[in-house]
Amino acid sequence: MMRRVWAILVAGVFLYFLIAQFLPIIPDFGNADMFLRVSFDIISKSTTSNYNVVEFKKSKDLEDGSANVVTSIVANYRAFDTLGEVTVLFCAAIGVGILASVLKPKRKIEFEEHRVLRISTGIIFPLILLFGVYIFIHGHLSPGGGFPGGTTIALGVLLLMLSNNEFKVTPVAKHIEQVAGAGYVVIGLMGLAIGGVFLMNFLPTGVVGNLFSGGVVPIVYILIGFKVGAELSSVVSDLREG
Amino acid sequence: MSNIIYYVSFILLGIGIYGIVSQKNLFKQLISLSIIDTAVNIFIVALGYVQGGEAPIYSAITPVANFVDPLPQALVLTAIVIGVGTLALGSILLIHIDEKYGSLDPDEIRDTREVVE
């Protein structure tokens, strides 16, 4: 009981600080001034050149050609951040794998198998896989990208695990992950060799909105998609049995 | 009233802090941490909203830029992925603690350790 009162006090102090001290200094919701923000240059895709208006299916050979501006930040302007993010996820997956393998009593979570689930999984799993691949191939055109696409694929694998107790994620997943992660670094080094900057966008960027546009962005996102899919699948399988 | 989304995220933050301080079960504390994670993500995305702005994607519907701020969204994408990583790592650590001491309550774990020693 004492603990709860104490918790309410602590949370209340935090809330008081946030609402009374912090809320007045941030802009009102919806009143962000885009012209003063860094994102303005990123949206007009002119961080190094003069301002130009970007138009869908018309502008071409910009410094970044992906129609999805979030993707162009994640996989082009801040690609080094994303490399670090992928490394963090890699370390977490390795940690889960090691900690799951040293658990003393070997354990495995068994689910009750059900015929309906099993057959419908057989029908729907290829569609989930296809949808995941679609999400990360179109990451530079539509909402989505490597991380949601990989997660979708990992969820398909989870569905296979729920429906079939014999299903196992083989070490192939780990190999896919390593190859994709190494491929990201290789693309960065190619940028260094060709343009002199690590992770530089060295391919032609094409017309905004076309499937083949954005230079290295789709390649990076496809690699991230494979990596995240393999990684999360092995995390799920490590948590299930180890 | 227009700032209601900020209050939503602050209240979620308060719920998370309350959960961390009040709960004894370590797994509930981990879930509280992930609630705080969500609250901060909502707050950061809300900071970038522009009245009447569209999702920051050039498409047939929005051929010319009239977008909300895409930078917070990109940062939140990173934060979500790292949140997943920490949640997975935390839960496997808690599985270890549970198998070793048979409990996730810090007080019970302390008692068990004293008995063992």
Low-confidence stretches of chain A: none
CATH top level of chain B is Mainly Alpha
Number of helices of chain A: 8
What is the H/E string of chain A?
HHHHHHHH
Q: Rg of chain B to the nearest angstrom?
A: 20 Å
Query: Which class of secondary structure composition applies to the elements of chain B?
Result: mainly alpha
Describe the structure.
The complex is a heterodimer of chains A (242) and B (117). Chain A has helices at residues 2-22, 38-43, 69-77, 79-101, 115-137, 146-163, 172-195, 217-240. Chain A is mostly helical and 242 residues long. In chain A, helix 3 crosses helix 8 (217-240), helix 4 (79-101) packs parallel to helix 8 (217-240) and helix 7 runs antiparallel to helix 8 (217-240). The longest helix of chain A is centred in the C-terminal third of the chain and has 24 residues, at 172-195. Chain B has 117 residues and is an all-alpha fold. Chain B has one domain: Helix Hairpins (Orthogonal Bundle). Chain B has 4 helices and no strands. The chains are: A mainly alpha (242), B mainly alpha (117). Chains A and B meet through helix 1, helix 2, helix 3, helix 4 and helix 8 of A and helix 1 and helix 3 of B.
Pick out its properties.
heterodimer, A: 242 residues, mainly alpha, 61% helix, 0% strand, B: 117 residues, Helix Hairpins, 4 helices, 72% helix, elongated
Which secondary structure elements does this structure contain, and how are they paired or packed?
The complex is a heterodimer of chains A (242) and B (117).
Chain A: H1 2-22, H2 38-43, H3 69-77, H4 79-101, H5 115-137, H6 146-163, H7 172-195, H8 217-240
Helix pairs in contact in A: 3-4, 3-8, 4-8, 5-6, 5-8, 6-8, 7-8
Chain B: H1 4-22, H2 26-47, H3 70-101, H4 106-116
Helix pairs in contact in B: 1-2, 2-3
